[in-house]
């Protein structure tokens, strides 16, 4: 294993990222939208957001923060934490009524404490009208009652298959498999060639979402449309049996992998295929290291294969932006999010991040970043095509709690590793989920 340090490396790509943050491409907007909001005098804001996985994200984000400060005179402090650390800090802030004014979090965390969040319906309606509307999945995450928005959608770090084209070809595959049968054959062939793949089976907030895909691909689901827990099902058992076969061909160690681990393993040349956002490709493409630049030419992206259900079952990492109800400056907080979501700020940020965050507003799918490099295009429609967490039920405290407790990921890990039989793992997941989905 090399001494490659992913986070230190990404910092070195700042210059390239800054170069990407050019003036936004202008396109006709579908409707005129009116926004009237006067921030409080003397307002100060504190923002807590997740740490960047691509340096261009935070560089461009902070440029936009400075623009906001210069324009409004409102002081803004931005703190960053890992995904796994934002969730508990956000929960503490919600329960104690003190902390950051604005929190950028993941998946359906907002549904853990909706009554603690500021109603941002006016802001979301303004943005939706101006920028082509929100993709339907945004309603599931942040408009739980079908009327009021409890947060502003930011987008999604699309979870796609990232692979080395040359290694797949050496294993006998001219293209990425379209179905789960071919996917398993590919993993077996790669292992036999000494170029295995691997996907996270630890409590990884983003990369562990492949476990949702696995269960859904075989027709399983955590709950039905009535929010009744149904994870202990024949369909889930079939998914777990398949997962056990798949895991047998993983590189050792994936049971403890968190979100950074597969990035490092891929960039170190230890694995040939994994699921990830665009950050692996971004890091290789922008690296000053000739070996990583050469690797970037070999990196390809593809959608997850389709399972026996016969339809795509994509699970992506959704990003929300929440304004805490306890804030002393609700109008300033809304103004900050409005400013950051306007095209003049959002498009350069999206571009600088290299397409790491797929848009939640339809108009932003027209951004040049999605076609300037064809390898970016598969990530463009992540929000448009994703299934919401907690499928097929309604999102709320139960779905958010189950996701935060990694019930599905743990179930897959237990069955795949042999720690439990598929039936035992499904039974345990059923009991754990029923604690959240109380009848």
UniProtKB/TrEMBL annotation:
Taxonomy, superkingdom: Bacteria
Q: What is the designated name of this protein? A: Carbohydrate ABC transporter substrate-binding protein
Q: Which InterPro entries match?
A: Bact_solute-bd_prot1 (IPR050490), SBP (IPR006059), TAT_signal (IPR006311), TAT_signal_bac_arc (IPR019546)
The UniProt keywords, alphabetically, are: Signal, Transport
One Pfam match, by short name? SBP_bac_8
Q: What is the organism of origin for this protein?
A: Rhodoferax sediminis
List the record's Gene Ontology CC terms alphabetically. periplasmic space
UniProt signal peptide: 1-33
Q: Which Gene3D superfamilies match?
A: Periplasmic binding protein-like II (3.40.190.10)
Keyword Transit peptide found? no
Q: According to its UniProt record, which protein family does this protein belong to?
A: Belongs to the bacterial solute-binding protein 1 family.
> Where mainly found?
periplasm
The places in or outside the cell where this protein is found are: Periplasm
């Amino acid at each position: 294993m090399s001494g490659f340090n992913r986070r230190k490396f990404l910092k070195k790509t700042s210059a390239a990222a800054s170069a990407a943050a050019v003036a936004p491409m202008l396109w006709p907007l579908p409707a005129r939208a009116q926004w009237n909001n006067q921030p409080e005098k003397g307002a100060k804001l504190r923002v807590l957001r997740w740490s960047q996985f691509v340096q261009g994200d935070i560089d461009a984000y902070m440029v936009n923060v400075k623009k906001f400060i210069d324009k409004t005179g409102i002081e803004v402090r931005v703190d960053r934490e890992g995904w796994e650390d934002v969730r508990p800090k956000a929960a503490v802030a919600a329960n104690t009524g003190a902390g950051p004014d604005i929190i950028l979090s993941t998946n359906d965390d907002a549904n853990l404490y909706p009554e603690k969040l500021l109603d941002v319906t006016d802001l979301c309606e303004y943005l939706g009208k101006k920028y082509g509307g929100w993709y339907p999945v945004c309603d599931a995450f942040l408009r739980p009652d079908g009327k009021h928005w409890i947060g502003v959608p930011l987008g999604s770090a699309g979870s796609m298959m990232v692979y080395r084209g040359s290694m797949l070809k050496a294993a006998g595959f001219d293209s990425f498999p379209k179905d789960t049968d071919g996917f398993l054959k590919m993993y077996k062939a790669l292992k036999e060639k000494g170029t295995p793949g691997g996907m996270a089976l630890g409590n990884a907030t983003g990369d562990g979402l492949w476990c949702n895909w696995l269960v859904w691909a075989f027709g399983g689901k955590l709950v039905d449309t009535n929010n009744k827990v149904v994870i202990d099902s024949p369909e889930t058992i079939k998914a777990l049996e398949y997962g056990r076969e798949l895991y047998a061909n993983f590189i050792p160690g994936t049971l403890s992998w968190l979100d950074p681990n597969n990035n490092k393993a891929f960039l170190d040349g230890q694995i040939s295929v994994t699921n990830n956002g665009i950050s692996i490709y971004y890091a290789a493409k922008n690296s000053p290291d000739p070996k990583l630049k050469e690797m970037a030419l070999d990196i390809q992206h593809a959608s997850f294969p389709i399972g026996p259900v016969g339809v795509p079952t994509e699970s992506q990492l959704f990003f929300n932006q929440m304004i805490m109800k306890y804030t002393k400056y609700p109008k300033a907080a809304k103004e900050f999010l409005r400013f950051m979501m306007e095209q003049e700020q959002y498009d350069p940020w999206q571009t600088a991040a290299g397409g790491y965050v797929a848009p939640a507003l339809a108009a932003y799918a027209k951004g040049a970043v999605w076609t300037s490099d064809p390898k970016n295009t598969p990530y463009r429609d992540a929000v448009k095509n994703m299934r919401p967490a907690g499928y097929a039920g309604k999102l709320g405290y139960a779905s958010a709690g189950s996701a935060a407790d990694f019930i599905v990921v743990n179930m897959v890990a237990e069955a795949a590793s042999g720690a439990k039989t598929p039936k035992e793992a499904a039974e345990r997941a059923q009991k754990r989920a029923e604690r959240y989905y109380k009848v």
